[in-house]
């Protein structure tokens, strides 16, 4: 897997991968134009979207209606250490969701590959060419 990272102007950063282009920018307070989410915002969105995919597929595979199904992701930061302290995901179940599946949908959502990559992080290597 290879992804190309380039710089289209200002402090924006662009990633090209599998025919898709993902743009990030910084808020004006960081020298950006606030024209796209920051890289950290995209990171958080990837966690929420990944968890959401597993919740959605859980319902679809059991023919459970998904109208009203959604997730919210809330974060807590440690202001002293300036780092992410906690990520809380709430699965908002659709009306009529079977009680017998409440724990199972949580377990399914926990299969998110992005979350697993954080819990068991890869090695990082940075080189120059």
TrEMBL record:
SUPFAM superfamilies: OsmC-like (SSF82784)
Keywords, sorted A to Z: Ribonucleoprotein, Ribosomal protein, Transferase
Keyword check for Ribosomal protein: yes
Entry protein name: Ribosomal protein S12 methylthiotransferase accessory factor
Cellular component, GO annotation: ribosome
InterPro entries named in the record: KH_dom-like_a/b (IPR015946), OsmC/Ohr_fam (IPR003718), OsmC/Ohrsf (IPR036102)
GO MF annotations, alphabetized: transferase activity
Pfam families: OsmC (PF02566)
Coiled-coil segments: none
């Amino acid at each position: 897997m290879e992804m190309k990272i380039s710089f289209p102007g200002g402090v924006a950063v662009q990633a090209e991968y599998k025919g898709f282009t993902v743009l990030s920018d910084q808020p004006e307070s960081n020298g950006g134009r606030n024209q796209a989410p920051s890289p950290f915002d995209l990171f958080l969105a990837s966690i929420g979207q990944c968890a959401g995919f597993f919740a959605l597929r859980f319902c679809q595979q059991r023919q459970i209606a998904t109208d009203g199904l959604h997730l919210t992701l809330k974060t807590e930061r440690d202001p002293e250490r300036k780092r992410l302290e906690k990520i809380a995901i709430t699965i908002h179940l659709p009306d009529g969701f079977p009680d017998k599946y409440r724990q199972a949908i949580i377990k399914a959502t926990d299969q998110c590959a992005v979350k697993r990559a954080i819990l068991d992080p890869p090695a990082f290597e940075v080189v120059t060419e």
